[in-house]
Amino acid sequence: MGSVEQLHETVRDAAATLVGDSAVARAVKLERPPRAELGDYSTNAALLLAPKLGLPPRDVAQTLAIELGSRLGSVLARTEVAGPGFLNLFLSDQWLAAALGGVLEAGDRFGAAEKAAAARIDVEFVSANPTGPLHIGHARGAAYGDALSRLLAFRGFEITREFYINDYGSQVRKLGESVAAIARGEPVASDGYHGDYVATLVPAERALQLDIDELSREALAACLEQIRASLERFGVRFDVWFSERSLHESGAVERVLERLAANGESYRSEGALWLRTSTHGDDKDRVLERSDGDTTYFASDIAYLEDKRSRGFDRMIYVWGSDHHGYEARMKSACAALGGDPETVELIALQFVHLVGGGGARVAMSKREGEYVTLDELVEQVGVDAARYFLLARSHDTTVELDSDLAVSRSADNPVYYVQYAHARIASLLAKLGSDRVEEALGEVAPVPSLHPSERALLKRLLAFPADLEDAAERRAPHRVATAVLDIAQQFTAFYRDCHVVGAKPRASESLRIALALATQRTLAISLGLLGVSAPDRM
RNA sequence: GCCCUCGUAGUCCAAUGGACAAGACGGCCGCCUCCUAAGCGGCAAAUCCAGGUUCGACUCCUGGCGGGGGCACCA
């Protein structure tokens, strides 16, 4: 009986015994009450069981308390029935000490999960057009996709991170033409690419020697390399860089169109080839091949999806901008048309990052005007840690406001420093004690006569961490990790204020506090690691 | 017009059916002979509107209002 999960299971079992129905019991929750005086944990079991039993919820809670008392014995210090029928549980210090032991035993895997079912997941993110530098919106996609990948990997999934390179359409030639124009000292066409970066892609003398196809390819490769380097500096790496062009050159697009036709999923009309996505829940059918014979972007997407499927992924996650959320239905439809389960395709639409100027006025981000903040600028100005935390602290479905003028000063206010500071403080504290004393303390974790409320609060906060990660992973919500780590740092700071560690009497109390500090440090480091933020020992 | 999404303190935002809505910034008042003041304590301040479901709603449903996005044989 050393973990919250086991405690939860016991509560479920007790509830199932009362009602004789395990289905209802599965919905029983074990929660942390909003205030410490309401107990260490509480359960809503009685509120759920009361209608089944035809009894008042508070009476059911009382019966449940007796049942739990006999199952838990001395683990349960006392119970209270509260409000409409909550049962509040007060746990013994023995249980808490044992739970801390469990945290220490887990080490840097605290909160991790064993290999999950349907474990292989492909996460595609960023996938920016390789025709210009990454901007702030891509930064959000990069931070999110990377943090989600780290989180899912920690929770037992086998993750492949993938970047889809749009190197096939007309924009490639436009990039080449823009480079050529600059090399010749001519103005760039109005629909070309205008940023200063264009001149840096291919040296002018070389640009003048190449034909437009070669030049376009070289310019694109150079641009892609800049993107890769920017992401690397931001702490983001990909396992697979997948070329759209390769899907055409290998015949994969052609093959998938043939296959869809053979399955009766496509038809010709008005000179074009259409996919029957509407039979799989889309609003209307979509064009695969235009009447001029060119295949559409959608056709490439399907060939790419089929390639992913053939590589054996159980699930394909696409992290796209919110301007693509209308694509969800057609991508799921395409999966169904290929004979797959549409539920294995998951689209996550990230809301935009809005740039706001000094007066709070919204600034339009336009590549044409050069009015945008690049990922490189963001990293240069606020640093990787502050940038990543800022972008990851918000839910993916809320728009983020970024004040361009305050980007630098805002960094000092970033809560990430508060978290890092707590981590550094613990490192300093443990260094002061010496590794021998810390080692000894870990072997001496035992119940102490009376835990200080701040010790208790910090420990319970740590114990909630695995469930935080489980929720965050299930909901694809790495911002919950950011929320949790800040909360843990705050609980630690309160503990640090109230409970002197070095020299605490009796020795058992000092040992427990050392163990608690170490467990906190590890939890902070794990969380920061999942966010891609460093955990410094000194600040 | 239709579809999706979001509306929470002055500002940025958390809370996906639980108890008195969390935190940060900004504001006001206080705190370094004390394991890091990048810190600590205190005060003021919020669920867009109207119905509904529920023992219980920021959360779910209906209808409004407001912001953003999408409704191509563009990529």
Question: Could you give a short description of this structure?
Answer:
This protein has about 550 residues and is α/β, with parallel strands linked by helices. The protein is about 55% helix and about 15% strand. It has helices at about 5-20, 20-25, 45-55, 55-70, 95-105, 135-155, 170-185, 200, 205-210, 210-235, 245-250, 250-260, 295-310, 330-335, 375-390, 405-410, 415-435, 435-445, 455-465, 465-475, 480-500, 505-530, and strands at about 30, 40-45, 75-80, 85-90, 120-125, 160-165, 240-245, 265-270, 270-275, 285-290, 315-320, 345-350, 355, 360-365, 400-405.
Task: Describe the model.
This protein is an alpha/beta fold and 539 residues long. Among the domains are: 88 residues, Gyrase A, domain 2 (2-Layer Sandwich), CATH 3.30.1360; 118 residues, Isoleucyl-tRNA Synthetase, Domain 1 (Orthogonal Bundle), CATH 1.10.730.10. It contains 22 helices and 15 strands. The strands form 4 sheets. The chain has a 5-stranded parallel β-sheet with strand order 7-6-5-11-12, sandwiched between helices. The chain has a 4-stranded antiparallel β-sheet with strand order 1-2-4-3. Strands 8-9-10 form a 3-stranded antiparallel β-sheet. Helix 3 crosses helix 4, helix 5 crosses helix 22 and helix 19 runs parallel beside helix 22. The longest helix is centred in the C-terminal third of the chain and has 25 residues. It is globular, with a radius of gyration of 28 Å. The relative contact order is 0.10. The protein binds one RNA strand of 75 nucleotides through helix 3, strand 9, strand 10, strand 15 and helix 17.
